[in-house]
Amino acid sequence: VVLLMAVSVLGGVEGTAVDLLITGRSDGALSNMLRMAPFDVLAYVGIVALRNGWRLSLHLSAERARADRLSSQLANSQLAVLRAQLHPHFFFNTLNAVAEMIHRDPEVADRMITRLGVFLRSSLDTSHVQEVPLEQELETLSAYLDIVRMRFGSRIDFAVDAASEALLVSVPPLILQPLVENAVRHGLEPSERGGLIRVTIRRRGDALHMEVRDNGVG
Q1: How far apart are the C-alpha atoms of 145 and 150, rounded to whole Å?
Q2: How far, in Å, are 130, 148, 179 from residue 141 at the CA level?
Q3: pLDDT in tens, 77-118
Q4: String of b and e for 115-126 (b: at least 16 CB within 10 Å)?
Q5: Own/partner pairs for 124-129, CB < 8 Å, 24+ apart?
Q6: What does the pLDDT look like over 160-210, one tens digit per residue?
Q7: Closest to 176 measured CA to CA, from 128, 133, 114
Q8: How far apart are CA 146 and CA 138, in angstroms?
Q9: DSSP per-residue string spanning 40-108
């Protein structure tokens, strides 16, 4: 921009000098310089505006990227807090159920410990990853559901309906288990008759729709 203004001024000075040498007058060059001055100013303003607009665009892009990162981190933190709140409750209840079953029905207690081991191993294996295939997430959920079935018997039933085209879609690990556990704790466990928990998963374009419903008291 400074170079443009300098060239404009130098052009006017050069024209004036030439007029003085040839004609002894400088009116034409000076008038041309004055006539072109508004266009030079407009060019200067335009270049400054383009430069500032480009810098603002870069700044906004960086801020959007930063906001997206913060949003992702917040979602991950909220999910981690939810897991931390629900897992101890589930583990203690399962251990209590094993302690009750070990004398009354050792075979069921043994199966419960085995499935709890599968669930714990899956939880540890996915504790440092952001996404897993839905198929793997359903295997982890299956281990949890088996434990619940052994604890509550026929009082609580489950139906999992996942579309085959959704099985390879990546999802956050342990995204379903806390939702199902909430349905057990607040929907069916307080009900004397128990009930059904239905998990439905469908792929809709680029989105994955996961629904957990129960017919209990909640």
Answers
A1: 9
A2: 17, 11, 10
A3: 666 655 555 566 777 778 888 888 888 888 888 888 888 888
A4: bbebbeebbeeb
A5: 126/173, 126/174, 127/173, 129/173
A6: 999 999 999 999 888 898 899 889 988 998 888 889 999 999 998 889 999
A7: 133
A8: 12
A9: HHHHHHHHHHHHHHHHHHHHHHHHHHHHHHHHHHHHHHHHHHHHHHHHHHHHHHHHHHHHHHHHH-HHH
User: Nearest CA to 82 among 19, 176, 14?
Assistant: 176
Tokens representing 216 are 């209990």
What's at 133, amino acid-wise?
A: P
pTM, whole model, 2 decimals? 0.58
Residue given tokens 């629904």 in the structure block: 211
Instruction: Name 146's Cβ contacts closer than 8 Å, sequence gap at least 6.
Output: 111, 115
